[in-house]
Amino acid sequence: xxxxxxxxxxxxxxxxxxxxxxxxxxxxxxxxxxxxxxxxxxxxxxxxxxxxxxxxxxxxxxxxxxxxxxxxxxxxxxxxxxxxxxxxxxxxxxxxxxxxxxxxxxxxxxxxxxxxxxxxxxxxxxxxxxxxxxxxxxxxxxxxxxxxxxxxxxxxxxxxxxxxxxxxxxxxxxxxxxxxxxxxxxxxxxxxxxxxxxxxxxxxxxxxxxxxxxxxxxxxxxxxxxxxxxxxxxxxxxxxxxxxxxxxxxxxxxxxxxxxxxxxxxxxxxxxxxxxxxxxxxxxxxxxxxxxxxxxxxxxxxxxxxxxxxxxxxxxxxxxxxxxxxxxxxxxxx
Amino acid sequence: xxxxxxxxxxxxxxxxxxxxxxxxxxxxxxxxxxxxxxxxxxxxxxxxxxxxxxxxxxxxxxxxxxxxxxxxxxxxxxxxxxxxxxxxxxxxxxxxxxxxxxxxxxxxxxxxxxxxxxxxxxxxxxxxxxxxxxxxxxxxxxxxxxxxxxxxxxxxxxxxxxxxxxxxxxxxxxxxxxxxxxxxxxxxxxxxxxxxxxxxxxxxxxxxxxxxxxxxxxxxxxxxxxxxxxxxxxxxxxxxxxxxxxxxxxxxxxxxxxxxxxxxxxxxxxxxxxxxxxxxxxxxxxxxxxxxxxxxxxxxxxxxxxxxxxxxxxxxxxxxxxxxxxxxxxxxxx
Amino acid sequence: xxxxxxxxxxxxxxxxxxxxxxxxxxxxxxxxxxxxxxxxxxxxxxxxxxxxxxxxxxxxxxxxxxxxxxxxxxxxxxxxxxxxxxxxxxxxxxxxxxxxxxxxxxxxxxxxxxxxxxxxxxxxxxxxxxxxxxxxxxxxxxxxxxxxxxxxxxxxxxxxxxxxxxxxxxxxxxxxxxxxxxxxxxxxxxxxxxxxxxxxxxxxxxxxxxxxxxxxxxxxxxxxxxxxxxxxxxxxxxxxxxxxxxxxxxxxxxxxxxxxxxxxxxxxxxxxxxxxxxxxxxxxxxxxxxxxxxxxxxxxxxxxxxxxxxxxxxxxxxxxxxxxxxxxxxxxxx
Lengths: 334, 334, 334
Fold this sequence. Notes:
- Three copies of one chain form a homotrimer.
- Chain A is α/β, with parallel strands linked by helices.
- Chain A folds into two domains: 3-146 and 318-330, Rossmann fold (3-Layer(aba) Sandwich), CATH 3.40.50; 162-309, Rossmann fold.
- Chain A has twelve helices and twelve strands.
- In chain A, strands 1-7-6-2-3 form a five-stranded parallel beta sheet, sandwiched between helices.
- The model of chain A has no long low-confidence stretch (mean pLDDT 97).
- Chains A and C meet through strand 3, strand 5 and helix 3 of A and helix 2 and helix 12 of C.
């Protein structure tokens, strides 16, 4: 494996092999596997789970890592091409990225969506530029429209909690005061589709997932024997659900228009998930969320603290899932 | 040992054993003792000594660590229960803490007092919540009313500079422009009492240490054969002192009232310790302070730079003292 | 070697030996050389290359490091002596520096020029104080008027791209919206002089490098058989150049006067280097810069992206050059 940028770059069988490796490393740790290897971690945006789990995972495999956070101890970084750099950023990715890559054996990069131009964000304009500048193993730590590490951990979680391959997976929009990126919803629907599930996206009007995301997930579903559709009908969506994956995201109808987004989410505060959402679901239906989550805004305390919730297991699974990725990218052949 | 949260959780003999281990690790390093172990360090508040010495100590024992600082590279974290999270914090400790704990073998957490509600701070409301969420070895890196790592290093320092067990230990209030927490004064009086010393707290009117702190120290003193009292009489307090431990803290008479605090400390700028404070003390009386210290505000240059001062030794001792704690928490049984 | 503060502290032969060691460590890594060693890194100012390459280099030699950045997770630090510390900084270097040094086997410190008092900056007032407080191996990570790690990496780069010892080295001022320090220009002219090159400093009126910098470089040149001069004549300076080293720096005629500096750089936006600058240079003349660089402000895109540019190689060479320094400072004798 040379890069880990998108689950869609891998066949279903390859993903299953990665998950098998993750389980093996949990059962039989290999604390020397990556001795002497160095992972660089570049965070253009905040992080808790990714930041902590990659450092911990690298250490558990015997390697080391360093963290760079532009704007905090490091210069702000410009990502636009061709600009006259007379503003705040003192460094351009065209220098910063290859320089960092030259110091390490693998580089992880987080670079969120700008949230202004939907096609630029869905096209991964910024991350593609960054990736073009790296000649080392590269890991997507969340880009404008993808979060493959989260998706891999989520797949592992679904396996562990016994959700069958063909089970009903509902990705439900949840309220949030601001417009959040499409990365996790895009990664989650694709992951569930690639797993072979019946995927339903439940969201209010104005928040439909864009065609590019739906079409990509449908291609994965077609190969795996599943399906993908979206609806605003809460009852229909949740009926018989085996998993509800809650996630906040931006209004897509007028993407990038802050006032329109605020207007679109007005009156949607009842999209704060609680136990009542599970009335028509299967009795053992579980709640997923990638975290961080705003309690009593996106999900109510009583639901997060109930046995339905597997959000902590999802977060924990970041560690073994990413250790498998690091192992594949960095373990010298024997 | 499962947790290191408060020296009061340990008998005097257990503390002496920890100090013996600290000395042993100084003389006979064990650079492989914690090979493969990962320490997570969560700093809700600034740090220099704790931040550096825990990373250095873990490395010297062969382990690794990662640092998380909410608000700088990581989401701000909410610690109140039951709130509707529509403000700045995007993450709640109810998720953040167990997630971090799940990535590491031991977790250290720093969470200062809010400085608003005295009984909440003295009751360690916030840290108790945090501790309840961790199922791994946990270390208190300074909570609202405690700083056991500092206390352990201070005890080691007292031993090294030859202050007898029954010597006179004066904790003296020192001026500071703002209301600082009660954590170090509380930890210092308890430590000195548990060591068996004659403990005198010297402070201006309005800055008396609360009963809860004094009573806890007195219980330790009773077991160890020492005593604890407080006074505003500088001459009486300092007469015959063998150690003066300077520390800044908030006005306690009207705790949490910023205007009252500012009013209380008006006219107290002469509580900047200098050599003249040692007129009635023993000739070899030493000056202690936990650092950081505002020079010429809390303590004068000439005193800090004189042979009386052992503040650098105290700070250095954080390293071996904490290495002993890490060793006890993380070293696999043989 | 006890300290790495200035290339001028070493003879030409000693520098050549360091470069030989750097090459050896590239060819034959020694991943256990510094096992158990801890490097402390104190950054008073932002960094990308230094921050990443020292951590990576230490890890590649089997050691560990920790990073402290005052003002971000750590208290702001006061560097002036004798002040009443009632402002923002809560910690003084007189405590902070020896404390950090006591936790590690070697300490690296970055402390930029204040940019107010030329003689204080050129005299390294601040760094000398810091250095006087450290009793461990110490590394200058960029001080007011020096950047020896950059200079060593640059020398290595010159060797690798085949620039002869006696070649013509032009340090050219480049435009920047703000007054930047003299550290890199000072280090670069000295390095080139010590290497034995024909060194020409090209800069507009008002930006002449101070005598102290020029004289020091001339002393090195005298020993190595080279020469050092400065001029405002672009054509004469660039004629026959084998290397152009672009760098932004403050107006020196009225150093520390912000308005005068802004006035001095008005009308100098054409000091943005492009291919036209190389008209009279040798065909194989290369472009160097220490990075970060503001594209299309200091250097045009087309030049940075052309084969002339070796800026990425310079940045990469920080890693092996610094590994040689760490090795010399920390490797136990055998």
